[in-house]
Design goal:
single chain
Amino acid sequence: MDSSSKSNVNFSDFPSEISDKLETFDDCLGDVETLLNDLFTVPHNDIQDKLFLIDKAKLDLMAAYTINSLFWVYLNTRGENPKEHPVKQELVLV
Protein backbone atom coordinates (compact mmCIF):
# COMPACT_ATOMS: atom_id res chain seq x y z
CA MET A 1 0.00 0.00 0.00
CA ASP A 2 1.28 3.43 -0.87
CA SER A 3 1.87 5.37 2.34
CA SER A 4 0.34 8.50 0.84
CA SER A 5 -2.98 6.85 0.09
CA LYS A 6 -5.77 5.67 2.33
CA SER A 7 -6.83 2.05 2.49
CA ASN A 8 -9.43 0.97 -0.03
CA VAL A 9 -11.35 -0.93 2.65
CA ASN A 10 -14.95 0.14 3.18
CA PHE A 11 -15.28 -0.10 6.94
CA SER A 12 -19.05 0.32 6.79
CA ASP A 13 -19.15 -3.27 5.51
CA PHE A 14 -18.12 -4.44 8.99
CA PRO A 15 -20.34 -4.59 12.07
CA SER A 16 -20.68 -1.19 13.71
CA GLU A 17 -19.12 -2.51 16.93
CA ILE A 18 -15.75 -2.90 15.25
CA SER A 19 -15.78 -0.60 12.22
CA ASP A 20 -14.45 2.44 14.13
CA LYS A 21 -11.72 0.37 15.75
CA LEU A 22 -10.74 -1.13 12.40
CA GLU A 23 -10.56 2.29 10.81
CA THR A 24 -8.39 3.58 13.66
CA PHE A 25 -6.17 0.51 13.40
CA ASP A 26 -5.84 1.03 9.64
CA ASP A 27 -4.92 4.70 10.17
CA CYS A 28 -2.29 3.72 12.75
CA LEU A 29 -0.81 1.14 10.40
CA GLY A 30 -0.61 3.83 7.75
CA ASP A 31 1.23 6.09 10.20
CA VAL A 32 3.68 3.29 11.04
CA GLU A 33 4.24 2.64 7.35
CA THR A 34 4.94 6.33 6.73
CA LEU A 35 7.42 6.51 9.61
CA LEU A 36 9.20 3.36 8.48
CA ASN A 37 9.38 4.58 4.89
CA ASP A 38 10.92 7.84 6.13
CA LEU A 39 13.43 5.88 8.19
CA PHE A 40 14.33 3.57 5.32
CA THR A 41 14.99 6.41 2.87
CA VAL A 42 18.23 7.18 4.72
CA PRO A 43 20.88 4.44 4.81
CA HIS A 44 21.26 2.95 8.29
CA ASN A 45 25.00 3.73 8.35
CA ASP A 46 24.30 7.42 7.65
CA ILE A 47 22.01 7.56 10.67
CA GLN A 48 24.43 5.60 12.86
CA ASP A 49 27.40 7.82 11.90
CA LYS A 50 25.67 10.84 13.44
CA LEU A 51 24.89 9.19 16.79
CA PHE A 52 26.81 8.69 19.99
CA LEU A 53 27.50 5.07 20.95
CA ILE A 54 24.67 4.94 23.51
CA ASP A 55 22.21 6.35 20.96
CA LYS A 56 23.33 3.75 18.40
CA ALA A 57 22.54 1.02 20.93
CA LYS A 58 19.15 2.59 21.69
CA LEU A 59 18.32 2.80 17.98
CA ASP A 60 19.25 -0.85 17.42
CA LEU A 61 17.22 -1.98 20.44
CA MET A 62 14.25 0.08 19.31
CA ALA A 63 14.45 -1.42 15.84
CA ALA A 64 14.63 -4.99 17.16
CA TYR A 65 11.73 -4.42 19.55
CA THR A 66 9.64 -2.71 16.87
CA ILE A 67 10.14 -5.51 14.35
CA ASN A 68 9.28 -8.17 16.92
CA SER A 69 6.25 -6.20 18.13
CA LEU A 70 4.94 -5.77 14.59
CA PHE A 71 5.36 -9.50 14.04
CA TRP A 72 3.43 -10.09 17.28
CA VAL A 73 0.58 -7.98 15.89
CA TYR A 74 0.81 -9.83 12.57
CA LEU A 75 0.42 -13.18 14.33
CA ASN A 76 -2.60 -11.86 16.21
CA THR A 77 -4.25 -10.68 13.00
CA ARG A 78 -3.77 -14.16 11.55
CA GLY A 79 -5.46 -15.72 14.56
CA GLU A 80 -2.27 -17.29 15.86
CA ASN A 81 -1.33 -17.19 19.53
CA PRO A 82 1.93 -15.20 19.72
CA LYS A 83 2.50 -16.48 23.27
CA GLU A 84 3.13 -19.91 21.74
CA HIS A 85 5.42 -18.54 19.01
CA PRO A 86 9.21 -18.07 19.34
CA VAL A 87 8.72 -14.29 18.91
CA LYS A 88 7.68 -14.14 22.58
CA GLN A 89 11.13 -15.29 23.65
CA GLU A 90 12.71 -12.73 21.31
CA LEU A 91 10.70 -9.91 22.91
CA VAL A 92 11.81 -11.08 26.34
CA LEU A 93 15.44 -10.94 25.19
CA VAL A 94 15.07 -7.39 23.91
